[in-house]
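Long-time lurker. I teach an intro course on protein structure, and each term I like to show students one example going from raw sequence to a predicted 3D structure in token notation. This year I'd like something fresh instead of my usual example. Would anyone be willing to generate the tokens for the chain below so I can use it in lecture? Attribution to the forum is fine with me.
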Amino acid sequence: MTFSMVQVAVSVMDAPAAQHYGYALRRQTGLATGVLYPILGRMAEAGWLTVTDEPVADADGDRPLRRYYTVTDDGRRELTAVLEKARVDRRFESLFRTPSAGTDAKSGQL
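-- Reply from a regular --
Happy to contribute to a lecture. Here you go:
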């Protein structure tokens, strides 16, 4: 269980029924593509995510087709367990901290 893997788990489990696409997950997590996509691939291989390509008819001509990642029922169980373990592990405490009053929600700064 790596910090990056937990970051991805937090992001996809924020809305487990939603279809997530790589660029949005990259923005949410701040992970480089070379880190994010292998994690998504391993989660898909484990059966935690399904992967579907955006239909060509839905694509905006100004960008590449999106690949969507959706949490499976098995993924929901497994990722919930991962997040429960991560919540009590000091290495990941910054991922679960809620901003206190008077701080900026994104940066945690006053």
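Some talking points for your students: The longest helix spans residues 73-87. The CA atoms of residues 101 and 110 lie 9 Å apart.
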